[in-house]
Automatic annotation (TrEMBL):
Listed GO MF terms: S-adenosylmethionine:tRNA ribosyltransferase-isomerase activity
Lineage summary: Bacteria, Pseudomonadati, Bacteroidota, Saprospiria, Saprospirales
Gene Ontology process terms (BP): tRNA queuosine(34) biosynthetic process
Keyword hit for DNA damage: no
EC number: 2.4.99.17
InterPro entries attached to this UniProt entry: QueA (IPR003699), QueA_dom1 (IPR042118), QueA_dom2 (IPR042119), QueA_sf (IPR036100)
Top-level taxon in the UniProt lineage: Bacteria
Species this chain originates from: Neolewinella aquimaris
Transmembrane regions: none
Protein name (record): S-adenosylmethionine:tRNA ribosyltransferase-isomerase
This protein's UniProt keywords: Cytoplasm, Glycosyltransferase, Isomerase, Queuosine biosynthesis, S-adenosyl-L-methionine, Transferase
Length: 414
């Protein structure tokens, strides 16, 4: 096993991805995708419709119920030139639900395409939605790193929440590697069927393959479903440009989990039953819960978020996951809280094995990405074999591509 995460060379997580292997559109049916099944070194080609037969009874399956917002806003400047505002995360109020449900002005951290054209002043966008005129105003504030603080207010004949305004005015922000504009179909297909909580600017794409019928077959087969919320940020597409990870700044994302989910995780860990993550976002959240609990066991109170290098802390290398999750449960119960919300910058790499998750359902990721590093954290050097097999057997790659079910070696033997 790699011992030092900071010294990992990103060139060791590169592979040739031909442009024609990128799936730019979804298949007509969500669950018609191929599925690569990897367990104990063996690779087999299956259909995603086989997933209920591949997860044993007693499995806890955890998915991300975040919903993608229409975060891309296209304005026209007074001189007629276009300007794009891309909403990243709320600043005032900072809570996603409060901001998106607000009917009063809100401030968001945003990317601004062509910001040099927009010197000062307020810009506006007028539309009609459901027969109601709506005018959205945007005012640029301070610069924050490569983004800006943008305050939005709107005029309408009836009260609109900011979430409704985005739905009416904005468009779905497709990943840049799809290299196409969003189309009407994407508003539905770039969402999972279990999406509930608005806030993401990218879909948790491993969940795109699920249908209500698949979820029902899983339930009747003895697989328990739980949901968490992690709002996926644009940083998920940020490439690693440094030679080693030591110089890479991991993006942060906001999550919320229920006390019920934590109790179920503790039960699974205690009984040695499988925990399977639907997607890298869910896995990042689940593994973060271990480190928050481990911090509590060491006497630290959880702060606003989790540092990207926490998995390299030797204090936690021998901490068992069940007591860590138990510590987090006890801390929440003592406070009278029924949920846990924080930011995480956790960077998962092959230098530290997963502490909570036994299996991962995920698509095929970009070369030289932190998502590929997360896959390697689960399967080690076998990621080379897995991706070579997928390339040689016509699997479709990236967000609208095919799926895989990857098991950690020795999964179930906690």
């Amino acid at each position: 096993m790699i011992s030092d995460a900071r010294s990992i060379r990103i060139q060791d997580y590169d592979y040739p991805l031909p442009d024609e292997r990128i799936a730019r559109y979804p298949l007509p049916e969500r669950d018609r995708s191929q599925l690569l099944h990897f367990r104990e070194g063996n690779i087999e080609r299956r259909s995603f419709r086989d997933i209920p037969t591949l997860l044993p009874a007693g499995t806890l399956l955890v998915g991300n119920q975040t919903r993608v917002i229409h975060a891309r806003l296209n304005f026209t400047l007074p001189d007629g030139r276009p300007l794009e505002i891309f909403c990243l995360e709320p600043l005032q109020p900072t809570d996603y639900a409060l901001s998106l449900s607000s009917t009063a002005p809100v401030t968001w951290k945003c990317l601004v395409g062509g910001n040099r054209r927009w010197k000062t002043g307020e810009i506006s966008l007028e539309i009609s939605t459901a027969g109601h005129p709506l005018t959205l105003h945007a005012e640029r504030g301070a610069r924050t790193e490569n983004a800006f603080e943008i305050t939005f207010r709107w005029d309408a004949a009836r009260p609109f929440s900011f979430g409704e305004v985005l739905d009416a005015v904005g468009t779905i922000p497709l990943p840049p590697y799809l290299n196409r504009a969003a189309e009407a179909e994407d508003s539905q297909r770039y969402q999972t069927v279990f999406a509930r909580q608005e806030g993401s600017v990218a879909a948790p794409t491993a969940g795109l393959h699920f249908t209500p019928e698949i979820l029902e077959r899983l339930r009747t087969g003895g697989v328990e479903w739980e949901a968490l919320t992690l709002h996926v940020g644009a940083g998920t597409f940020k490439p690693v440009t440094s030679e080693t990870l030591s110089d890479h700044a991991m993006h942060r994302e906001y999550f919320t989990v229920s006390l019920s989910l934590l109790r179920n995780l503790h039960r699974q860990l205690g009984e040695g039953l499988p925990i399977v993550s639907v997607g890298t976002t869910s896995m990042r959240c689940l593994e973060s819960l271990f480190y928050f609990g481990a911090l509590l066991l060491s006497g630290d109170i959880p702060g606003e978020g989790l540092d990207q290098w926490v998995a390299t802390d030797e204090r936690f290398s021998k901490t068992d996951p069940a007591p860590a999750i138990s510590a987090l449960i006890d801390w929440l119960e003592a406070r009278g809280d029924t949920s846990f919300s924080r930011y995480t910058q956790l960077l998962l790499t092959p230098a530290a094995k997963p502490r909570v998750v036994d299996g991962l359902i995920t698509n095929f990721h970009q070369p030289r990405s932190t998502l590929l590093l997360l896959v390697a954290a689960m399967v080690g050097e076998d990621w080379h074999r897995i991706y070579t097999y997928a390339l040689e057997n016509d699997f479709r790659f990236l967000s609208y591509g095919d799926s895989s079910l990857l098991w950690r070696r020795g999964a179930g033997a906690k």
